Amino acid sequence: MENSSQRRFGSGRLSLVRFAVFATAAFVMSGCSLFGDDEEELEPLELTDIEETLDVRRLWSKKLGGGSEFLRIGLSPAGDGNRIYAASYDGNVSAYNPETGDLVWRTKTELTLSAGPGVGDGFVVVAGYDGDLLAFNSEDGSEIWRVNIAGEALARPVIKNNAIVVYTIDGQLRVFSAFDGSVRWAMEQSVPALTQRGSSIPIVVGNTIIAGFDNGRLIATDLSDGVTEWEAVLTPPSGRSDLERLADVDGALAAVGQDVYACGYNGLLAALAAESGQVLWTREISSPAGVAADWNNVYTIGNQGEVIALLRRNGDDVWRQESLLRREPTAPVAFSTAIVVGDLEGYVHFFSNFDGQPVARERVGKGMISGSPVVMGDKLFVQSESGVLAAFEVRLPERSEETEDDAEEAGEES
Length: 414
Description:
about 425 residues, disordered N terminus, five-stranded antiparallel beta sheet, 2 helices, mainly beta, single chain, five-stranded mixed beta sheet, Methylamine Dehydrogenase, Chain H
């Protein structure tokens, strides 16, 4: 198979040279205004007043620990239906009651954390900046094991069937045993000389892991043994310079039923069949943030910060919202009747999933929101890089007695 191989995990850390390459890429992608002729044109679009037609309420907010301003690491909340879990840059891993925000437990790892938590099967897993991978008991926060995987993870670990899926920025996708942290299998893809700072979180559909890589490939592998089932090239590298050849699949992936949606930088947004990799449709849309999907639409963020909705069945345009240009919106998430994104100033924006009009706006704090908001049940959870976790809900209008009486009369007449 071209440019891919599988191997058992070996030792060796990411070199300082490669770290410099990643840092340089992040600088190039986010700091181009230094080289522009008109700096004002490259400033984030200023927010304007909106008419709030969706009643969004902040339930609570908590300080998780130390912040990580503008480092774009992979820390975002995760839930298991009963609790919401979050980790801070300075090493705290915490569990909260999602209704009240009461702290259930907190474990201090004394590490600098870069990704997580992943939650599932009674485990909570986080990754450290220096290559540490730690697993905790989700009930009480007690540490079960820790291993060093010799690579930085910027994508949240994924837990399924007592297996932990971890993707690191050196191009390795590995599966570990949830019981003791031992490696079950590993796959490695080549990493281009220049990449963006970030990693796509793998998704699991059935027993298949689907992951995006920095060389523009989307690869599906069997969770049990790592055998490759199919691969697709979302972004064939092209151009003369390393910058022109950027092909990362770093953004969020989405799946609805047996359909998978993914988007690469300088490439395509594609819908594929999860079982075969067959391309169902494509659009020439480049996104560093990735995609989200509901039963009707696919949502993504354009390179300049446009929020875009496409029909899920064929990729046709539904609406496009340009009020967040250059505000670095996160990957979108569907919540209630809205599409939600965070931005670089800590604002959380709610747009109608019907026509893209802004319907509400809240603020977590002054810290950048770099991770996608997370939905659990009827609540939305957002973590900022300043180390704050906030919970929101949508208040639906109460039905009046007259409305209820009318509904009862209509039922009796029918």
